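By way of example, what follows is a protein record of this kind.
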Amino acid sequence: MSKKWVTLLLVVCIGLAGGVGFMRMNADTEGPEIVFTSEAPSVYRSDMSNEELLTGVTATDRKDGDVS
């Protein structure tokens, strides 16, 4: 009876380790590339809206595409 439980536990641990390895290999670990065009404001003012601040700014990720 004890050998069956040890074998079952070993199989479960190997399966979990394989699952974790698979998830880590497929994880997106690279951040997006952020590009500022000439339209982007070069001076910051505290009264600028988010829309004004993000004018001319794009963010692109290899896995997710356009994330801006």
